[in-house]
UniProtKB/TrEMBL annotation:
Classification via InterPro entries: Pyridox_Oxase-rel, Split_barrel_FMN-bd
Protein name, UniProt field: Pyridoxamine 5'-phosphate oxidase family protein
Pfam families assigned: Pyridox_ox_2
PANTHER family: 5-NITROIMIDAZOLE ANTIBIOTICS RESISTANCE PROTEIN, NIMA-FAMILY-RELATED PROTEIN-RELATED, FLAVIN-NUCLEOTIDE-BINDING PROTEIN
Top-rank lineage group of the source organism: Bacteria
């Protein structure tokens, strides 16, 4: 499981690479906020350069302490590039609501986003890889791990796990209503916020699930108590 720090909040270094320039009042370098955004986001995007071209790819992630962990096949181009120490940028965003204003430009979203810059390292020790892979499962399907077949040594060798430290990072958050002009506020147009959250549908079994097998509690109650769900 991800670890939330009980220590007093501290800030990440405010480097030029992660400094929030547009709307700096929305920016934050508090590590507790940055951690929480990566915890709440189900997906992150990893940016790197390959043969002089920018590449951005989505992937699953998990945070443990102050490291972000992503995984893939050993021949995956993103994973091999990042594991080799190439500069990397990891970003995650949680959309909290649609912001509905009275003019075209004042329709927006409330969001929480976080960016981490740095270099990745390959996690090689199987005794380190195994619990981190377990943490990844526990992030997006809490309670499922005890039901699963354990990882084999061969499976561990097939996985490339990369850690990116949360040291050079920033967050940006928008809250509140639209910034309508005073002259527009008298227009007969509904304005405000439409909250959004991730909602699970009814679980759909595959062809090999016995007809009398009930949906496990960890799926039936998926998302309960989870921020953004």
């Amino acid at each position: 499981m991800t670890e939330r720090s009980s220590k007093p909040q501290r800030s990440a270094p405010v480097s030029e690479r992660v400094k929030v320039r547009r709307r700096p009042a929305r920016g934050s370098y508090e590590l507790d906020l940055i951690r929480s955004i990566f915890d709440d986001a189900l997906l992150c995007h990893v940016a790197f350069v390959e043969d002089g071209n920018p590449v951005v790819l989505p992937t699953l992630h998990v945070r443990i302490g102050d490291e972000l962990l992503i995984h893939g096949a050993r021949k995956n181009r993103m994973m091999t590039r990042v594991a080799a120490g190439a500069p990397v940028c990891v970003e995650a965003t949680v959309i909290d609501s649609l912001v509905l204003g009275r003019s075209v430009l004042q329709n927006s979203v409330n969001y929480r986003s976080a960016v981490v810059m740095g270099e990745g390292r390959a996690v090689q020790d199987p005794d380190e890889v195994r619990p981190r892979m377990h943490a990844l499962i526990d992030k997006w399907a809490p309670g499922r791990l005890p039901f699963l077949r354990p990882l084999t040594d061969a499976e561990l060798r097939s996985v490339l796990l990369v850690s990116v430290p949360i040291t050079e990072a920033s967050a940006k958050v928008r809250t509140g209503d639209a910034n309508d002009a005073d002259a527009d506020r008298s227009r007969p147009v509904w304005a405000g916020q439409l909250p959004l959250r991730v909602v699970a549908g009814s679980p759909v079994p595959d062809d090999y699930v016995p007809a009398d097998m009930p949906v496990p509690d960890h799926l039936a109650g998926w998302g309960e108590g989870r921020s953004g769900a």
